[in-house]
Amino acid sequence: MNHRKAIAGLSATASFLYLGYQYKKEILRFVYEQKLKFHPGNGNNYAVINAGSNPDTILTGKTIGYLGSSVTFGAASGHVSFVEYIARRNRGKYVKEAVSGTTLVDEGEDSYIRRMKKMDPDTKFDAFVVQLSTNDATQNKKLGTISQSGLYDTKTITGAMEYIISYVKNTWHCPVLFYTNARYESEAYAVMVQRLKELQKKHVIGVIDLYTDDAFNDITDEQRNLYMADPIHPTKAGYLQWWTPEIEKQMISYLDSLYNE
User: Fold this and answer.
1) pLDDT (tens digit per residue) in 60-70
2) CB 3.0-4.6 Å disulfide test: which of 106, 155, 227, 257 passes with 113?
3) Phi and psi at residue 67, in whole multiples of 5°?
4) What CATH code would you report for 39-259?
């Protein structure tokens, strides 16, 4: 009986400590988000309503699907990202499936693949955009190899990317594009970007490469302080003034190339 009481006591203690840890995480997250509200790059002048309007292009009025993690979500910008700006500027619609901290690699219910499979297969997407998640690099997920058989190891970064490409094309029958983060210090992420470019040739997808583009990354320290909340996450100003115009330009170029062949 004493043995059982001891086990029950340890279990209760563990549960209490876990709840305390979760509570502390939520408090820290709340404090961080409140602090970000006062970041100069998150001022009201950068709100989506002030995003302006573009002339008609191939993006005008289109419905775009987005799959990603914190950068697609807008974790440091009041849950607003380039997704909302592009829709506003091009009078389009979007479905944004983005959860912070999640990975391409299929581990857990919040992985890209699990969430993608919950998206409505009957949605009429004109294009589908996937974030090359920094979390896979940070968490040291296995890169894997490019499949030669059509069977994809979704427990690896490469296999997960190939699976997502195949699933999107077979489900929504629309063009697929991946986008990378702007440049930050990460050897693992640089390797992921290179692998993505190798998959571009195999699968015929669009790649919006913000990472290796020297001209795109050539900004002043003053601009970087305004545009980025940290090395990975943009502010509203960063999305609106820096990322959105470049992502739009490359999306238009890729989609034009497909439909004007």
Assistant:
1) 999 999 999 99
2) 106
3) -130, 125
4) 3.40.50.1110
